[in-house]
Every structure is written in structure tokens, then in C-alpha cells.
Amino acid sequence: MLLYDLTSTYFEGAMGENPKAKYGHSRDKRTDCLQVVIALVITTDGFPLAYEVMDGNTSDRTTLRGFLDKIEKTYGKAKRMWVMDRGIPTEEILQEMRDPAREIFYLVGTPKAKESDRTLVRRADFQTRAPGLVLQCRRFTKGHYRFSECLE
Q: Tens digit of pLDDT for each residue in 10-38?
């Protein structure tokens, strides 16, 4: 299982000499500052497999294909599960990941549903990571997608 995420970090002061420092979507709400985007792929043990510092105006949606290829080229083809935020993959990339020849699986967050849209079922057999944590879950299918929705 690989975890993939991006963040940005902004600069205050003179950063004109840094060619990667650009104005872009600021996760810190600092649209007045130059920034860089940092992408990271780690294992579930926290071991980093790849990272890259990118231009500050890099869109999250343009980064995944390069990392899929980089991991496959560096570590070889293997069954891998990628976990990432919903804002990272495009539908085009997800279709490529579903190609059976690639043996790539993914788990992507989805937007929160309205409370009125949820049908929640208590699952006693869910493994909890903290004492007293109660998860409410539902599983459903839409087309060729399988969903699991869990709330604390």
C-alpha cells in the first residue's frame, strides 16, 4: 500500500531566484506569497519511496501519472494499492489504473454526503484503532465502482 499526497509551502521575502517559486493554489490561504508544491509517496510504515519539489503553480491533478510511472520504473511492476485525496486523480488516470494489465488498485476519498443522503449501518466486526471508537459504515456499488463509507 502506498500513500500519495501533496502539500505546498510558501515563502515570505525575496524568492525571485528560485525558479520553482510561483504563485498558485495556496493551501495556507497565502495567495500573496510565492510557493512550491511538494509531492510524496510513502509506505504505510512511513518509508518514503519518492518525492518531488515542483513549481508552485502545479495542479495536483497533473502529478499522479508521473509518480505511477516513477514507482513502477524504480521498483518494478507489482500489485499496489494507492491511497490519495480525491483532488489528485482525474477520471482518465483512474481508468488507466483500472487496466488489468497494470494491477494497480486505488482508494480515493469522496466528497462528504449530506447527512440526509446517508444510510448508516453499525458494523460490530470493524477493527478499531482506538478504544471506544464506533464506526458507522455502508457499502454500495455504482456502475463498476465499489464504495465504502465510514464515519466515526
A: 988 777 789 999 999 888 899 899 999 99
Do 99 and 121 belong together in one domain?
no
Of 34, 84, 36, whose CA–CA distance to 61 is shortest?
84
**Same domain for 89 and 54:** yes
Give yes or no: residues 117 and 135 share one domain.
Answer: yes
Q: Both 41 and 71 in a single domain? A: yes
| pTM passes above 0.85 | no
Domain residues for 148?
A: 111-152
Phi, psi of 145 (to 5 degrees): -95, 140
Q: Is 116 found in the same domain as 85? A: no
Q: How many domains does the chain have?
A: 2
d(C-alpha 125, C-alpha 113), whole Å = 24
Strand partners, 3: 42, 83
pLDDT in tens, 48-78: 999 999 999 999 999 999 999 999 999 998 9
- For 53-75, the DSSP string reads EEETT--GGGTHHHHHHHHHHHH
Q: Where are the beta strands (DSSP E) in 23-100?
A: 35-43, 48-55, 80-84
Residue type, position 24, single letter: G
